[in-house]
Amino acid sequence: MVIRYLEILEAIAETGTFTSAAKQLYITQSAVSHAVAELEKQAGTALFERLPKGVVLTRAGISLLHEARSILTACRNLDRRICHLEENTPVKIVSSITIASFLLPEILSELKTAFPNLQLSVQVASANTAIDILQRGDADIAFWEGTAPKGNFDTIFLGSYTLCAACASDFDLSEKALSPDRLCRYPLLLREQGSAIRDTLDNTLALVHLKAEPVWESVNSLALIKAAEAGLGITILPETLLSDSLSLKKLRLLPFDEIKMENQMLALFHKDKYITKPFQLLIDQLKSRNEFHSL
Question: Which residues, including other chains, have CB under 8 Å from residue 234's CB and lie 6 or more apart?
Answer without folding.
Answer: 165, 166, 167, 171, 173, 183, 186, 187, 188, 189, 228, 254
